[in-house]
Amino acid sequence: MKRFAELLDRLSYTPARNAKLTLLTDYFRAAPDPDRGYALAALTGGLGFAGAKPAMIRGLVEQRVDSKLFRWSYDYVGDMAETVALIWPPQAEDGDAGAGHPPGLAEVVEQLSRAGRVEAPRLVAGWLDALDADGRWALLKLITGGLRVGVSARLAKTALARLGEVSLEEIEEVWHGMAPPFVALFAWLEGHAPPPQIDLRRAFRPLMLANPLDEAELARLDPADFRAEWKWDGIRVQLAAGGGEARLFSRSGDEIGAAFPDLMAGVAFDVVLDGELLVAREGEIAPFNDLQQRLNRKKVTAKMLADYPAQLRAYDILFDGEDDLRPLPFDARRARLEAWHAQERPVRIDLSPLLDFSAWDELHALRNSARENAIEGLMLKRGDSPYVAGRPKGPWFKWKRDALTLDTVLMYAQRGHGKRSSLYSDYTFGAWRAKEGEGEAGEELVPVGKAYFGFTDEELLQLDKWIRANTTERFGPVRAVRAGLVFEVAFDAVQRSTRHKSGVALRFPRIHRIRWDKPAEEADRLESLEKLIEG
Amino acid sequence: MKPESWLKVTPRGLYCEPGDFYIDPHRPVGRAVVTHGHGDHARPGNRAVLATPETLAIMRKRYGVEAGGKLDEARYGERREIGGVSLRFLPAGHVLGSAQVVLEWQGCRIVVSGDYKRRPDPTCAPFEVCPCDVFVTEATFGLPVFRHPPDSEEIAKLLTAQAQFPERAILVGVYALGKAQRVIALLRRAGYQRPLYIHGALQGLCDLYRDFGVELGELRPATGAAKKALAGEIVLAPPSSLTDRWSRRLPDPLPAMASGWMRVRARARQRGAELPLILSDHADWDELTQTIREVGAPEVWVTHGNEEALVHYANSLGLRGRALALIGRGDEGGEEEQGGVQEELET
Q1: Residues B77 and B191 in one domain
Q2: Is B264 part of the contact surface with chain A (CB cutoff 8 Å)?
Q3: pLDDT greater than 50 at residue B341
Q4: N or C: which end of chain A has fewer CB within 10 A?
Q5: B265 with A79: Cβ contact below 8 A
C-alpha cells in the first residue's frame, strides 16, 4: 500500500504528462503482481466495492472524532476522504493492542471485495489504524472509487505500452478482454508470455471520436469530401452482438445493457454498431432529461420502460458477422449499415440520416435552424475515413450549435471545494419577475441556475473580492449578495422544472461573460427564458 | 483581579496596562515587547523595543534605523521589572531568538507564547514549558487535520526527488527567516554535503544565523550560476520565486515548497507545489494540545489561527478558553499568505 500511496501522491501533484508517464512506468516495473494489476484497475476505474460507501467512512470517523472538530476540519479541507485521512486519530505508539501491520494493496482489494456489509467497516477501520496519513488517503480514494489523480485510462494504457514497448492500439485491442489483476497482460508486456488471446466478437472496441470544428477552417475543406449527420443529444454507445449474446457499452467501455432490457430484448443478430442511445416516443426523440431517468439504474421498473422507452440511433457499423469493417472508408461502411438495416429490420434501432448539402453555407443554415430538443448540432465525417480508435485530427468534426445567452443577476455564492476551498466560486444567478402575492409591488429576482465555470482564475479572484464586499447575508458556506452584478450566462437549452422555484432549468449553464458594466436592473426577465422552453 | 483587567486586547495589539507596554503591536507604540523577528510580530517604528538579542539583530538587519528608538536586549531568563510587572523571555522554539513572554503581576502569571513549536530544531533553542495561570497561545495549525510528519521523512522526500531527476533543479520555496536555515540544517543533518544554492533574498539572514553559531555548510548564490551547473542541485528561494520569472534561470525546475500548509492538498496546489514538504515552524494540533495540558493553566487565550477549534478543545478539558481575535494576524486561516508582506509568515 505504501508504494501505491506514494504513486498516487506524486501523480496528484505532477501536472506534466511525461513526468506522469515516468512515474507510472516506474511503478509498473517495480511493483509486484498482483499489486500492480490492482493499481492499474484502480487507475482505469475498474474496481468497485459495494460495501465501502462514503457514508460508511463517515460513520467510522464519527465514532472516533469530536463532531465539531470534524465539521470544522471538513469545512477547511474541503474533501471528505482527505479530511478523514488527516484527522484519523493516531494509535498509541506503545500500546500493543493498537495497530497491526499496514496492509498490501492486493490484500485490501481481495479482502474488501469478499467482505459483506457488516465486515467491511471493521476491515477498513483496522487498515486506517495501521496506515499513515498518506496511506489512509490512498486507501479511501481507492475504496470509494474516485482517485482523481489526473490519470486517464488512456494515459495508464500509454504507460503500459511504454513498459512493453508495444503500440497503444495493441493495448486497446486486448484491453476489454482482460480483467484485474491483469497478470497475463503484464506477463506479455514483460516478454514472459505470448499476447493474450481473447474473443473479440463481443468485446468493446475503442471508439472513434470527433474534434470540435474551428469554423475558420471550413474554407480550407471541400464540402464534397464530407458527410453530415445531426449530432444527437443522447449518450454514445456501442452495441456488440453475436453468438446469441449482446452487450451495450458506454463510450468509456462500461457495460450498461442491464439498464436497457427494452432495447436489448430485440437484439438477435451478429453486428457491432456505433450509435446514440436516446429516449423516443412514437418516433419523437425526447429531451436528454428523459434519458437521464434511465441511466445508472440498478432496477428498471415497468413504468420506467413505458414512460421512457429506449432507442438506438445507429450511425456506424464496425463488424458485420466476422467481417471487420473498420478499415473500410466511411461511405462503404454506411452502405453496409444501410444494407444490414434494410435486411434485418431491427426493432428499436433506426439510422441517423445523412443530411443533404453541397456547400458549407447550406449546412450552416441547417445548423442554425435546428433548435429541437434532441439535436446538439452537426457531425461532419470524411467519406473516405476508416474507423480509427481515439481522436485523430482531420476525419471527423463536431459542430455544435451556438449557445443561447441571457443576462442574469448574481444572487448567491458558495465556497468551492478542493483547489477553490478559499474562494467563492459556485454561483447561483436569477432573472427578474414581478413580485408575487397580494398587494406586492415591484420586481424580485428568482434563481434560474447555478454555474461554477466559464471564467479565468483572475476573474475568480475579482469575483471573490466583489462577493466579500457585497455580502448581505451568510448561511454557512453560502453568501447572499446584493443585486449588483450581471452574468451573461450561456446554456444549451431551457427545460421546464418542478425542482426550481422559477419553474425552469438550464442545460449546461456556464458563465459566458461577467458584465461588470451592466446595471442589474437591465438584466433579463423570467418571461424571456420561458419563451425558450422546448418540447 | 481578573487577568483581562491588566492584559487587554486593543486595536494595536495585546496591551499590559500596569507596565504600559504592548506585545507584538502591529502599529507603532511607545514601548513594544517583541516575541520574534517575523514581520507580523516585529514591526518597525516603535519608540522603545524589548526583545532577545537575536530578535533585535534580525530587526536591525531588516529595518535598519527604522527598527525602533531605544533597543533593549533581554536574554532568555533575564528578569525585568516594568511598572511593577515582572517580565522574562523563555525560548519558544519557533525561529532563532523566538521567545515566550512570561508576565507576573500581583501573584498572577500570564505566559504569552508568541509563535512556537515543540519538535527539535537545530537552528534555535527548544520551547520551555512554564506553568502559569493564563496561557496565551497561537493556533495557526489549530485543527486536528494538522499533524506534521517527522522532519526526517520530509527531507527524505526531497532527497529522493533530487536523485530521481538528475536533469532538473529542485527549487524549494522557503521563507527567508527560519524556514530557509532550518531546511538547510536538516539537509546537513541528513548527510547532504553538496553546496546548496540560495536566492539573494536569503543571504542576509543565513549570514546572521551563522554569526549566532548555526552551521549551514557551503552556500552558493543561485543568481549568476550557469544554468547547466544547477541540474541535479537543490536551490532555495522565497516562495514567490516558485512561479516567478526568477525560476527561468533554472533547468526544468521541480517546484517544492516547505510549509505546514502543505499538509492540505488544496493549499499545496494553490501554491503550485509539485513536491510539497510538510515542514512547519508552528506547533501542530498535537503539540498545541500537549502544551495546553502541560502548562496547566486554567485559562487559555487563543490569539490567531483556527481559534474556535482550540477554544473548543480547551473547554472540553474544563478550562476557560477564549478567542482573542487579534487584528493584523490574518483572517480565515491563512489566506493572508497570498499577500506580499506575508511571504515569511504562517509557516
Answers
A1: no
A2: yes
A3: no
A4: C
A5: yes
- A141, A157, A231, A381: which one is catalytic? A231
pLDDT at residue number A204: 81
Contacts of A69 in chain B (CB under 8 A): 143-144, 309, 312-313
Which architecture does CATH list for A2-144?
Orthogonal Bundle (1.10)
Contact B306 A76 (CB under 8 A): yes
Give the 3-state secondary structure of residue A431. Answer: strand
Whether B302 contacts chain A with CB within 8 A: no
B62 and B163: one domain?
no
Nearest residue in chain A measured CA to CA from B144: A87
For the segment B4-38, what is each residue's pLDDT rounded down to a tens digit? 999 999 989 999 999 999 999 999 999 999 999 99
Give pLDDT tens digits for B254-285: 999 999 999 999 888 877 789 999 999 999 99
Look at residue A428 in the predicted model and tell me its pLDDT.
Answer: 95
Query: Is A231 noted as a catalytic residue in this protein?
Result: yes
Q: From A87, which residue of chain B is nearest by alpha-carbon distance?
A: B145
d(CA A177, CA A189): 15
Residue B248: which domain range? 151-277
* Of the residues B225, B244, B277, the one at which a domain ends: B277
B175, B273: one domain: yes
Closest Cβ–Cβ partner in A69, A87, A419 for B266: A419
Task: State residue A94's pLDDT score.
Answer: 47
The domain that holds B99 is classified in CATH as 3.60.15.10
Q: Complex ipTM, two decimals?
A: 0.91
Cβ atoms within 10 Å, residue B264: 26
Contact in structure between A351 and A283 (CB atoms under 8 Å): no
Name the CATH superfamily for A404-530. Answer: Nucleic acid-binding proteins (2.40.50.140)
Q: What CATH number is given for A211-400 in this structure?
A: 3.30.470.30
CA atoms of B299 and A511, how far apart (whole Å):
50
Whether the CB of B255 is below 8 Å from some CB of chain A: the reply is no
CATH of the domain at B203: 3.40.50.12650
Q: Tell me the whole-structure pTM to 2 decimals.
A: 0.69
Contact B50, B32 (CB under 8 A): yes
Low-confidence ranges of chain A (pLDDT < 70): 51, 92-99, 198-201, 370-373, 417-421, 438-440, 534-535
Chain-chain contact of B313 with A79 (C-beta, under 8 angstroms): no
Q: How far apart are alpha carbons A202 and A241 in whole angstroms?
A: 6
Q: Residue written as cell 553559531?
A: B213
Give yes or no: residues B141 and B223 share one domain. no
3-state secondary structure of B304: strand
Residues B194 and B99 in one domain: no
Query: What does the block give as the cell for A324?
Result: 471487420
- In this structure, the answer to whether residues B23 and B124 fall within a common structural domain is yes
